[in-house]
Design brief:
- This protein has 429 residues and is an alpha/beta fold.
- The chain has 14 helices and 16 strands.
- The strands form 5 sheets. It has a 5-stranded mixed beta barrel. A 3-stranded parallel sheet has the order 1-2-3, with helices on both faces. Strands 4-7-8 form a 3-stranded parallel sheet, with helices on one face.
- Strand 10, helix 12 and strand 11 form a beta-alpha-beta unit.
- The longest helix has 23 residues.
């Protein structure tokens, strides 16, 4: 979501005549867009923010904008007092404060024109599309902001506010604009994306939205994340299986494999229910890949509880496991009510065990792809090689003198590793 927010703001600034600076020393405007899902991310943001004090002192005209979850939806007076050299504080997904600040700095004869332009850019609360702008092959499109679920450890509801779905027609408008600008894959974003439309009376839900987006001719692929096990409906599963443009890749976090920990996390399902969901996805969506999130060291996680999580991953052999060590986030239920009982070194030990387990699983899952031909949508060059992804979201690199940007080509896999594949282009038939 933060990437989508940053791109939206960058596009707005470019359309107001700003240009990207080659490096921070050349910048007239610095935007620090923050994520605070983990304590380490917040600490990094605070450190970077502190480092900007000297730059502001050297250049008083420098505009510094702090944006995102560190600010939160209700503002953060304590933060403003702590960092007086910051000019603008912006809530997540809201470029308006910075744009207004910049407009106020213009000469009187230019300010009106700026404000008119800003209004046209921000005609939609979450709008992102501006015709004629060069875009990436794959583009994120937020369709749900905020979250109302309130898992025990999660700070997102506090920082991004309640769950809000966008109007379907505005989403379709943005998607069509993306397509006209060369985007070939759209990734729909939401904290619990399966709940899209439930807060809007008469709105289509995610299965219907996917069907409508599939009708846009130039869009080749659709993805969505992140799902919640409780809201992954049969209708949504059937839509993924039925709609050719919806890629067979589902991101549905487990977070833990122990029922006691899941209860403490307020996740709302059991180990067995998660296993049953994975079995259903694999049965109904041929060749589906499944990604999960796991938190190690949650308060009360005993060795036995951790072993249940280890066994879950070992048994299910999922395609992706995003691993994180628990850190208490101020304001959350777990930070208030549950003691951070697992020592840091033990969290790291458990993290490494899962990391090694998942690496071995991925090596085994990818090895059968050796010598096969897979469709790859290429996005850009990375260190001299073309970077692309399969329908199941596996990363593929290949060498070619052709410009493969936005092209979907068959690739014969010549090498497999746990994190990526390397292959050669098949002749066009």
């Amino acid at each position: 979501m933060n990437v989508a927010d940053s791109r939206r703001l960058a596009r707005s600034l470019e359309n107001l005549g700003c240009e990207p600076a080659a490096n921070i020393d050349d910048a007239d405007i610095i935007v620090l867009n923050t994520c605070v899902v983990r304590q380490s991310a917040e600490d990094k943001a605070i450190g970077r923010l502190s480092s900007l004090k000297s730059r502001k002192k050297q250049n008083p005209d420098l505009v510094i904008n702090l944006m995102g979850c560190l600010v939160g939806v209700h503002g953060n007076p304590a933060l403003q007092k702590r960092f007086p050299w910051v000019d603008v504080f912006s809530a997540p997904s809201d470029p308006q404060p910075l744009l207004d600040f910049l407009a106020n700095r213009q000469q009187a004869d230019q300010a009106h024109s700026w404000r008119q332009h800003i209004d046209s850019l921000l005609d939609d609360e979450f709008g992102v599309a501006v015709a004629g702008e060069e875009r990436a092959v794959s583009e994120n499109l937020p369709i749900v902001l905020g979250c109302s679920h309130a898992c025990a450890y999660c700070v997102i509801p506090l920082r991004r506010g309640r769950e809000r779905s966008r109007d379907a027609q505005r989403i379709l408008r943005d998607a069509r604009t993306f397509a006209s600008q060369g985007v070939r894959e759209i990734v729909l974003l939401g904290q619990i994306i399966d709940r899209y439309g439930l807060d809007l009376p008469g709105s289509p839900h995610l299965p219907q939205l996917l069907a409508s987006l599939s009708e846009i001719p130039d869009i080749k692929r659709l993805r969505f994340l992140t799902s919640h096990p409780n809201w992954m409906s049969d209708e949504l599963i059937e839509s993924v299986a039925r709609l050719p443009k919806v890629m067979p890749h589902i991101e549905v976090p487990a977070q833990a494999g122990d029922d006691g920990i899941l209860l403490a996390m307020r996740r709302g399902y059991t180990n067995q229910q998660y296993r049953d969901l994975v079995a259903k996805l694999r049965d109904r969506i041929p060749g589906v890949s499944i990604a999960t999130d796991i938190i190690v060291g949650f308060p009360g996680e005993t060795e036995a509880a951790f072993q249940n999580t280890y066994d879950l991953l070992a048994d299910l052999r999922l395609d992706v496991a995003h691993l994180a060590r628990y850190s208490p986030r101020p304001g959350t239920y777990s930070a208030r009510e549950l003691a951070d009982s697992v020592p840091a070194e033990e969290k790291m030990r458990r993290f490494r065990l899962l990391e090694d387990l998942q690496e071995g699983i991925l090596r085994e899952l990818n090895q059968p792809l050796l010598g096969t031909s897979v469709p790859v949508l290429f996005e850009y060059r990375l260190k001299g090689r073309w970077y692309g992804r399969t329908p199941t979201n596996r990363i593929v690199f290949t060498d070619s003198e052709e410009d493969l940007t936005g092209m979907e080509r068959q690739v014969k896999i010549d090498w497999t590793g746990p994190w990526s594949l390397v292959g050669s282009l098949e002749p066009v038939r």
